[in-house]
Amino acid sequence: MTETAPDTPRCPYGYDRLPSPVPLYGPDYKRDPYPLYQRMREAGPVHRVEFPSGIHAWLVTGYRAAHAALNDPRLGKNHALGNDNWRRLASIMPEPQHSQLQVHLLHQDPPKHTSMRRLVLDAFAPRRVESLRPRFRELADALVDGLPESGGADLVAGFAAHYPFRVLAEVIGLPPELAERFDRDWGKVVQPVGPQDPGRPAYEARLRGLQTYIADVVDHKRADRPASGRPADEDLLGRLVAAHDAGELSRAELDSMVFQLLVAGQEPVTNQITTMLVTLLRHPEQLARLREGVEEPGRLARAVEELLRHDAAFELTTWRFFAEDSDLFGTAVPAGDSVIVSLCAANRDDAQFPEADRLDLDRTPNAHLAFGHGIHFCPGAALARAELQIALATLLTRLSGLRPAEAPGDGLADLAWVPAVLARGVNRLPVAYDRRR
User: Fold this and answer.
1) CATH topology of domain 22-436
2) In the chain, domain spans
3) Structure confidence by residue, pLDDT tens digits, 219-254
4) Which of 7, 96, 129, 175 is the most buried (most CB within 10 A)?
């Protein structure tokens, strides 16, 4: 790793030079990682980093390097490629849950990845998503109807925590009675809790509760299958259960894919709604312009793409590994060490995006990497885009005078960012508004 020059201005994280490894944790980092990412890009494309669990990894930063790494066939996603040191520290999810819930799409390589991905693509196809937009608007309006008529509200508790899951339930075929039972607290299983952490018992209880819920979902879909033996039309959960029963998926792969849908299918959208709102609230002039032009063709879609680029909820990718010692942009990376791509750092690279730190809601072209790239490009990207567009349009047009909360301690500077390693977002977002339309 190349160090910065001695006369480089002092870094906001308390050091003049980039250490090795660079710590990627702490409230200052989670609040605003972008000054650190800029320092890292300037120093080189690959850096040794440390996560809260103590594991060290290799982080790829700049846009060109990130794009290349996301498409590098040498880098695999299967956890079996990880070396013993990575496995000792990174396997936070204990057995038996790790083996039973971690063999989903994000952790597979071709040809298994190809066959598993094919099972989900139809449910998230752009044409199908477009046909469901009226229903998504109904769901968004229903949540806004439940907010106070005036004064203000917490837009996480009142909207963002619920909207993506209600949309997801419609798309994947989760029955209402099971959707009502889902505990959002189960989503915290993707946040690292080490074996010695005092919160470990609660973490393991979440895992057991989620596993029981997944088993109930599978049992319900199997019992509800039509007499023909085929899953209901446009019912993704039913198709996955049928694929397992036909021998195309193991039980662990089935449970892992349901796990991925329930957690990764909605929590990142919840977080992305919050990061978009925080960004707009910090730029009130642009918020007002977007509200005034929300009906202009293409305006909202361009704004969402820029908000995704400016502060993506999926901050870092999941692990990748070389099967043998390899060179990564001039850095020697041992086999089995984890390689992670910083999507947020890539999306703020001035070499790709002129004035990358500036928010420009009409920016075009805008080839950001918020949904990844290559064979692991997010299969639910079209759904996420529709959700985000509808969520923003609904909140901006129905909450007149939307602005940061006015109560002491509730302002934008006081927001607590979620401690999840890979994600950005806030668990509370108090706002004020004049009235609900």
Assistant:
1) Cytochrome p450 (1.10.630)
2) 22-436
3) 999 988 764 455 554 589 999 999 999 999 999 999
4) 129
